[in-house]
Amino acid sequence: MSYWVFSNRRAGEYDGSEWDMSWILENRKYYLEQSERNRANVRPDDVVFLRIYGEHYLGRCVIAGDWVNDPDGRTKHDTDTGWFPTRDLLRWRRQLPQGLIIRDLSNQDVRSRIIKITAEDGLKIETAQRVYERLGFGGADGEVIVLEKGLEEALKPNLALLGLRPAPEEMHQQFRMGVGVGRSDLICLDERGNLVVLELKRGIGSDEAIGQLLRYMGFVKENVALPTQEVRGMIVAGDYDEHLRLAALAAGIKIVIVRLL
Hints:
Helix content: 10-25%
Strand content: 25-35%
Number of domains: 2
Shape: elongated
CATH superfamily of the largest domain: ph1033 like domains
Oligomer: single chain
């Protein structure tokens, strides 16, 4: 048995095609170019850790069988392609930021698609993920939402899961505020008709987001909200650190963590 890291771009980067992480996870097939370096060395029952380039590890799986050539690969992609069937997919509830573990691994290659690691490396990744999930930070305010696309586009049809609905179209998305204020990612209405300003962070949010969001909330309260409407803030992030959590707690801002596949 060997251990590998397979890297890909985040879900949605390839528009749901075979190259896309969402397709790979849904179909249990890891799609690759046949000429990919190290591809020929991967064997059934090998363990694969799944990584988004430059960002995080999202889980692991096991190679379920031999390489399968895609007979239409050259026609579709102008190159020979295929896939490894996978099994025992485990998606971690909290993804492990690459920066927390990469320097501890024997192979620190962050560019190659297929990277050979040791069994000890695999144990380090899994241990770091468990510590990060269980001991690292206080909990988020919201449940994890699994999104299969880019964050902003995937969040809009899932607003009901947060008890929200889009605000009127003229201020719903990328609402431009005054000079020097900026523009919000999303403005929504809650079940009581109050305004909720959402700030979206693809990676790990920092406490700088609190000041930015409070500025947007202040503008909305002063220039948009009706006298009867409250204005709340919410940060939707792929992950967060303790600085952000504590700052949000003090500011009365809700944090919702999403799983970006």
